[in-house]
Amino acid sequence: MLGPVNHIAIAVPDLYAAVALYEKIGAQVTQPQDLPDHGVTVAFINLPNTKIELLHPLGQDSPIKSFLARNPSGGIHHICFEVDDIHETSRMVSEAGARILGSGDPKIGAHGLPVLFAHPADFLGTLVEFEQAKNADL
Q1: Which residue stretches of 10-114 are H helix?
Q2: Residue 129 falls in the annotated catalytic set
Q3: What is the spatial distance between Cα 102 and Cα 3, in angstroms, rounded to a whole number?
Q4: Residues with Cβ within 8 Å of residue 128, at least 6 apart in sequence
Q5: Is a pLDDT exceeding 80 seen at residue 134?
Q6: How far is Cα 87 from Cα 109, in angstroms, rounded to an integer?
Q7: Catalytic option among 53, 82, 88, 129
Q8: Which tens digits make up the pLDDT trace of 51-101?
Q9: Looking at residues 129-138, what average pLDDT do you find?
Q10: Which CATH number fits domain 2-132: 3.30.565.10, 3.10.180.10, 3.20.20.140, 3.10.20.340?
Q11: In whole angstroms, what is the distance from residue 74 CA to residue 33 CA?
């Protein structure tokens, strides 16, 4: 079952300019964090009801590079939902006819919790991330 929206991710061509913009309007923004396994550097804008994840490419193979090539000003990249059980979610998503990206095995995301992504073509053109709400055995 889907839980709350954990975050909405925005790909940005200049992470430090994006952080500065949000800080100027009073947002609390985390320090940038490199996630080499995902090919991104991220910073989070903490809001009362969710978070905004600012994504910037890390390395030559970053999936964000191709997104920014198509959207040079940046833009919404994905939405992330919390789930109770990442493996059950994977099964349900697959049974619903949607593809899980990559190997199908969860990876550890920016919050130190298991995540999976579903193919945007199978979710009405939106890349969807699922994040296990609590750490559990993988």
Answers
A1: 15-24, 63-70, 86-95
A2: yes
A3: 23
A4: 78, 79, 80, 81, 117, 118, 120
A5: no
A6: 15
A7: 129
A8: 999 999 999 999 999 999 999 999 999 999 999 999 999 999 999 999 999
A9: 76
A10: 3.10.180.10
A11: 19
Counted residue by residue, the chain has a size of 138
pLDDT in tens, 11-40: 999 999 999 999 999 999 999 999 998 999
Identify residue 115 by its one-letter amino acid code: V
Domain boundaries, the chain: 2-132
Nearest CA-CA partner of 55 in 41, 65, 69: 41
Q: What are phi and psi of 113, to 5 degrees?
A: -120, 155
How far apart CA 70 and CA 101 sit, in angstroms, is 20
